[in-house]
Amino acid sequence: MGGLRSYVSKLLICMAVLAVKQALPDRSFTIDYDSNTFLKDGQPFRYVSGSFHYSRVPAFYWQDRLDKMKMAGLNAVQTYVIWNFHELKPGEFNFDGDHDILSFLKKANDTGLAVILRPGPYICGEWDLGGLPAWLLNIPGIVLRSSNDLYMAHVTEWMNFFLPKLRPYLYVNGGPIIMVQVENEYGSYQTCDHQYQRQLYHLFRANLGPDVVLFTTDGPGDHLLQCGTLQDMYATIDFGAGSNSTGMFQEMRKFEPKGPLVNSEYYTGWLDHWEHPHQTVKTAAVCTSLDQMLALGANVNMYMFEGGTNFGFWNGANYPTFNPQPTSYDYDAPLTEAGDPTPKYMAIRNVIGKYLPLPAGPIPPPTKKYAYGVVDMEFTATIYDVLDQLCPYGPILTDYPITMEAMQQYQGFMLYRTKLPQNYATPANLTIEGIRDRGYVIIDQVWVGTLNRVNATSMNITGSEGMTLDIFVENQGHINYGSGLYDPKGIISNVTLDGAILQKWSIYSLDLDNILPKLQSLHRQRNRKMGNFIQERAPHWRDGGYVPSFYLGSFPNLSAIDPPQDTFLKSSGWTKGQAFINDFNLGRYWPRAGPQVTLFVPANLLRPSPVQNTVLFLELERPPCFNQTETCTVEFIDRPIINSTVAARPDETFRDRKYIPEGHDFTDLRH
Ligand SMILES: *[C@@H]1O[C@H](CO)[C@@H](O)[C@H](O)[C@H]1NC(C)=O
Ligand SMILES: *[C@@H]1O[C@H](CO)[C@@H](O)[C@H](O)[C@H]1NC(C)=O
Ligand SMILES: *[C@@H]1O[C@H](CO)[C@@H](O)[C@H](O)[C@H]1NC(C)=O
Ligand SMILES: *[C@@H]1O[C@H](CO)[C@@H](O)[C@H](O)[C@H]1NC(C)=O
Ligand SMILES: *[C@@H]1O[C@H](CO)[C@@H](O)[C@H](O)[C@H]1NC(C)=O
Ligand SMILES: *[C@@H]1O[C@H](CO)[C@@H](O)[C@H](O)[C@H]1NC(C)=O
Ligand SMILES: *[C@@H]1O[C@H](CO)[C@@H](O)[C@H](O)[C@H]1NC(C)=O
Ligand SMILES: *[C@@H]1O[C@H](CO)[C@@H](O)[C@H](O)[C@H]1NC(C)=O
Ligand SMILES: *[C@@H]1O[C@H](CO)[C@@H](O)[C@H](O)[C@H]1NC(C)=O
Question: Where do the Beta-galactosidase galactose-binding domain residues begin and end (predicted)?
Fold first, then answer.
């Protein structure tokens, strides 16, 4: 930061501190070290909280989920603040609708739930790049999650912009926020940079004032806590069901000899990955450890209480073997992805009832579901038919491929195009070491093979000089955890053909926002001469040369259902792609991989009759109507299928995903 700018920002921070100092006299939230408890307004206070990330549930349903949390006996809700959800592009902020975190905080407050806020800047959370904006990856020399100046300049700018918005919502100022977490499981990251934590501490204090409890969360291990904690921030831990709570809290006590016991992430379930079996944790195990912790007087946040959905392209991925998470973030939590109470919910409520008064009144019922039934899907366009609409400003011309982020695109798909420099009559070795993450290799608009970063970075191709070689690349989600955070997408290496570097690329950034109107007008034109159109395409398909294409359907088909109800979009028969409902990017489907087969469609996305709703698929690999013996349909059903069987990849385990104590057999806890 330049001298003047730095002076001005210091001045602003001083003014900010003055502005936040006027706490309401009768409201306080503090730590009583001697009595090992939190104090709220001077009285001992223990929270039983649940994680619920506003970015994973439409704003339409926030109140419903908060009410159900309240009725479970919880007195607090914990959420991350997701930086990249608010600043997807540098300086372009989104705080509207589903992004309106202040409205979320107000709803929590009105529901009578305290808020434990975790503004990162890094959050992990199985979220794209752990919540960090992918544009940070464009900055040469940046060191994420460290005191590196380049990184801290952007963190500072964001926090100085965002944190002041929270002031009216702090407990001392009449709002619900009792505690604010700094960073997330920082001890699990390799940088172990205490200066970074100190800088964050000052940034948070300067913007939030002296009266809010700042804390950290780490796995219960010496090394993790050494790197993750810092003086003046209360050190808390996280661990799951089946752990010996007494033993775990002894780890915390090494770093906080006095003060309240806190488990900031008590796992009610577990996360999923594509191509791996659906994860669950037994209700009995969850209840036993919860009971133990509450009996010890501990404060507990259940992660997740309501998991929700990774809509659009927001899922993250794990590492070292690249493993993206699916669209559903159900998490086997007490409330399902669709917000419905489960037997786990009832059992947890019973445990909480032993320690805290349960609110009177009925538990809100599950939301209504409707099976809208089978919907015909019509082929509408290949990506080539709409390339001009998807990339209105045309391609960028470069000698060598550049990354998706360098193209200032941070999610989705990108097309890399060049020409074959000579004839390749015998198979030539096409190698893309840096394919991120999955690339469809298409020659003169005929698919010839699929590459992926895990186990297929080369293939043989043939062709003649001048033919168009396209690599259609999918970003499957930025790595959100561990040492793999530097995960730029697209093509991040050179592309070689029999060892020679291919040059002169045209790179098309593909924009899927507002895709529906573009396709619908095309669809109407096409419909008039659909017969010819299909004829034109059919030969390619018969040769196996399918290229990524759009399919459109509309519903309801029979009697209209008013008001619209939640439903589940079943993708069976399709292979892999992106689904949209009324132009809303619902998420990825990949039933061939599993375990997720249906996508949750919340009612707020649907329009009341007589308006037709549209469902759009961008199918990347092979639609059910690939050959003419089958039809292309989807089905809307009234229950989720997120646990279909998968042929598990044998190549890795997830033991490194979170701190799991030695000898702890996680598999024992699964259903
Ligand atoms: C939070 O709720 C309390 C009443 O419980 C109200 O007095 C206060 O104004 C609310 N604060 C905000 C920020 O909505
Ligand atoms: C739990 O841990 C404590 C402290 O390490 C130990 O004394 C106790 O025996 C353990 N309990 C079980 C059931 O393993
Ligand atoms: C309605 O659904 C039926 C099958 O349930 C299908 O045969 C028919 O073509 C559909 N009609 C429209 C307009 O989509
Ligand atoms: C690629 O082509 C080379 C040369 O023809 C051949 O030796 C090799 O087996 C082929 N590899 C694959 C995977 O087909
Ligand atoms: C290679 O990785 C892809 C992508 O994860 C996976 O679908 C496929 O099953 C893997 N193939 C083998 C042979 O392991
Ligand atoms: C391409 O060449 C690389 C490097 O020699 C080799 O590892 C790879 O197996 C080859 N791919 C094919 C499809 O033959
Ligand atoms: C691609 O090759 C060119 C020419 O050899 C080289 O300058 C460039 O650094 C290479 N790019 C990558 C990402 O390796
Ligand atoms: C059409 O697809 C079905 C199912 O994948 C397959 O059984 C059948 O052989 C295919 N027919 C042709 C002509 O490819
Ligand atoms: C998936 O979950 C449902 C509902 O809990 C259950 O009935 C079904 O047996 C499960 N399927 C698999 C393959 O585990």
Answer: 548-609
Nearest atom of ligand 7 to the alpha carbon of 434: 13
Is 433 part of the annotated catalytic residue set? Answer: no
* pLDDT given at position 539: 43
Ligand nearest to the CA of 173: 1
Q: Is 457 in the pocket of ligand 5 (CB under 6 A)?
A: no
Rounded CA gap, 598 and 134, in Å? 28
Q: What is the pLDDT of residue 182?
A: 98
Atom of ligand 8 nearest to the CA of 627: 1
CATH topology classification for 373-381+515-637: Jelly Rolls (2.60.120)
What is the structure's pLDDT at 664?
Answer: 35
Checking DSSP bridges between strand 549-555 and strand 505-509, what pairing results, if any? unpaired
Please tell me what DSSP assigns to residue 612.
P
The CATH superfamily of 2-352 is Glycosidases (3.20.20.80)
- 371 Cβ inside 6 Å of ligand 3: no
- Name all residues whose Cβ lies below 6 A of ligand 8: 627, 629-630
Residue type, 251: E
CB 552 within 8 A of CB 614: yes
Ligand 3 pocket: which of 375, 376, 527, 625 to mutate (most atoms <8 Å of CB)?
376
Active site residue 265: yes
Q: Do domains 2-352 and 373-381+515-637 have the same CATH topology?
A: no
Pairing of strands 577-581, 584-589: antiparallel
**Pairs from 660-668 (Cβ < 8 Å, separation ≥ 24):** 660/240, 661/220, 661/239, 661/243, 661/248, 664/242, 664/243, 666/240, 666/242, 668/242, 668/285
Instruction: Please give the pLDDT value at position 631.
Output: 86
158: CA distance to ligand 6 center in Å?
A: 45
Instruction: Specify whether the CB–CB gap between 131 and 82 falls below 8 A.
Output: yes
Helices (H), 242-359: 245-255, 283-295, 343-353
Identify the residue whose C-alpha is closest to ligand 9 atom 13: 644
- Domains of the chain: which residue ranges? 2-352, 373-381+515-637, 387-509
Supply the pLDDT for residue 545: 73
C-alpha 118 chain-centroid distance: 15
CA–CA separation, 85 and 102 (whole Å): 14
Question: How far is it, in rounded angstroms, from Cα 121 to Cα 622?
Answer: 39
Q: Is 373 in the pocket of ligand 3 (CB under 6 A)?
A: yes
pLDDT of amino acid 198? 98
Report pLDDT for 524: 64
- The reported pLDDT for the residue numbered 609 is 77
Of all protein residues, the one whose alpha carbon is nearest to atom 7 of ligand 2 is 247
| Pair 119, 471: CB distance under 8 Å | no
Dist CA 434 CA 634 (whole Å) = 35
Q: Under 8 Å CB-to-CB from 535, ≥6 apart: which residues?
A: none
For the CA of 629, the closest atom of ligand 8 is: 1
Residue 287 CB less than 6 A away from ligand 5 = no
d(C-alpha 143, C-alpha 132), whole Å = 12
* CATH node for 387-509: 2.60.120.260
The residue to which tokens 């905080």 are assigned: 105
Residues of the chain with pLDDT under 70: 1-24, 523-544, 557-560, 628-629, 647-671
Ligand 3 contact via 378 beta carbon (within 6 Å): no
At residue 6, the pLDDT reads: 42
Coil, helix or strand at residue 218? strand
